[in-house]
Request: fold
Amino acid sequence: MKNYYSWIDTAFVKYVPQPLQHLAANEQAKRLGGKIVFYNGEDFKTLNNHSVIKSKIEQKPEIDGIIFFTLKQFFNNGKLNLLFLKWILERGYEVHFSRENVKICSKEELDTLFPLLYATHHVTQRDEPRQVWKPIWNLMPN
Amino acid sequence: MNTIHEQNFLEHGFCIIDVENISKLTELREKIFQKAKEVIGYQGNNVEEFFNNFHNYHLEGAELNEKRMSIINYCTQNLDVGKTIYEIFPQTIIDFIGPDIVAQKTTNLVIQQPHDPNAEALHRDSPANSPFEITVWLPLVDVYKTKSMYLLPLPHSKKAIELLGENYEAFVAFAKQHSQSIEIPFGKALFFWQGLIHGVPVNVENETRWSLNIRYKNIFSPCGTKGLIEFFDMLRLSPLAKIAFEYEKKSYAQETSETSK
Reply:
C-alpha cells in the first residue's frame, strides 16, 4: 500500500475547513491505493515559497508522494510555480491534487499536463475577481 | 456544421447533427453494451433489445444506481468517451469550439426507465457551468416523445429565465407550455447551449432510454464555477497552440525559477 503526506491548503481553510480537506485527501489516497500517513500545511508566511513542505521533502521521508488539496497551492506570486512541481518530482515523489483529482507521477506527465495547468492558471488569474478572496489575500504576505 | 445547422443553433440554441463517423459510434455503443451485459448478466447479443427492454430487470433506486455507476466507472477508466465522442463528431465540435478543446472528465450515462418518477427537473446547465460550453447529448437508442428529453428553444429559455427569479410556478408553467420534445434516432446527437432550459419528463413509453451527455469547451474560454482542471481533460490542440505551449513551458520554468529563490 502506498503512503502519502496530505498537504492542506492553509489559505483556504476559511472556505474549505480542514476536516473537509482531510476527507478529500483520504479519498484521493484511497483512489490511489494508498493511505495518508502524515498531514500538515504551510504557515501563512510560507505559502508562496513552500518552505515547510520543502524541508520535509529534504528529510527524504519514506512516502510515495504528497497529496495537496488544490493546484492553486502552486499559484505563487501571480505565477504557476512549475519549477517547484518539478523539484518535488525530481526527488522521486508523486504529486496529487485532491480537489482536481489530478495525479502527476513523473516529469513526463507534468510535460503532458502543462497546457491544462497553464490554462487553468491563466484563466483563473484573468477571470476570478481578486476581491472574492480578499479576506485571504489580506492575510497573505505580499 | 452546415449553414442550416448553424442557423438553427443561432435561432434555437440547439441543433441535431448526423454522426460523422458511424463505425466509432457503433463501436462505443457495443463496448458499453458488453459491460452492461456483464453487470446485469444478460446472455443475448441484441443491443437495442437489451437497452430498450432494460426495465424488465426491475432494477430501481440504489441497486440501479450501483450498476449504472459501475458502467460509468468502466467508461471513464477504459473507454475515453470524451475523445471517442469527439471522434464521432470531429468537425462539428471544432466548428463550435475552435481547435483547442478540453472535454469533460466524466461522461454521464443516463438510463431512463418507463414510469421512473426520478426524472430530472427543469434546469439550465449555465450557471454553474460556463456559457462557453457545448453539451453533446447522444442517445444510444432511438428516442422520441417522453423517452427523450425536452428543452426550451433560445427565445423561450430567455423568457423563462426572467420568470425563474420572479415566480417559480410561473416559470414551470411557461416552460411546460413552450417546451419541445426532441426526437432523435440512433446515429444523431443533440448539440445544445448550456443556457437552455431543459428537463426530462417521466418516460411513459414502453422502452428504456440509454443516453450519454458530455460537455466541451475551448481551453481558454471563461469557466463557470466548475474549474478548468477540475472538470475537464485536455482533448486536442492546434499546431499553433502546441508551439506556444512549448515556448511558454520554457519561459515559465525560468520565471518560476526567479520566484522560487
